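To whoever is on call:

I kicked off a structure prediction for a single chain this morning and the downstream step that reads the tokens threw a length-mismatch warning. I double-checked the sequence; it's 252 residues and nothing unusual in it as far as I can see. Pasting both halves so you can look.
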Amino acid sequence: MRQKDIFNRFQQFLSETEGEFQIMEHQVPIETQMEYFKHSNRLRGFLFPLKSELTVEDADYEQFASALENPKTSTDDKKSMLSVLAILKQVKAYRILEKFLKSADKELTDWAYMALMESRIALESEFSDGRHIYISTGLGGKSNKFRFYILLLSTTGAPFLDYQKQVVEREFAYTLSKEDGELEQLAIKENYIELLLLIPMQTDIKHILENVINECNQYGNFISDIVTVTNVKKLTDKEIAKIIEQHGKQNL
């Protein structure tokens, strides 16, 4: 299935599904998200084989908090404790997760954030009549907007000229302002452009990019129609170099 078809189907799902949508803002690698959910599901199967709720005493919460703050507690054990707290549907558990995230080591920050989000979803579902749906991507988002990484290439591989850089900056700023989008980052390198954009959920990013590229190319056809769009991660220098190399071969 083509990427456009996938995105169109996702937008159709959003328009047809009732509930309050929220986008996970923190940027958590997809691999970490998958690992977290697999671990969480295993714990659910172990903790709730026969009953739907697990009773935890106040003293147990204190032990959780103490163990999480203890530097001698292993990373794996802390991950398990964070996951257990996330599925308890208790405000006390949420507060422990919230406090831990503020001082978590880099190694546990993403995991702690995922646990906090799972706990928040559970509590909101418990205390609210409405349906709450969280959407997670590798690059996260903000409010009702997805964050996208965009890579644009020079048509011929030649360096961008100063006036072309100015055109790119102007056209993206103008188009995004009309679409309620945000330009978080714009880096114009010698022969490629990297952007981080925030785009409302229901907005067609393909349409936005086509419009901007067409407008820019009125001034010299200097941006290639080969565009890389992802909400999974930022591309590395090595990945960018490979795309540029493939683009060059296509132009031979």
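Update from on-call: the warning came from a stale cache, not from the record. Cleared it. Sanity check on the structure: Strands lie at 20-23, 132-135, 141-142, 145-154, 182-188, 192-200, 223-230.
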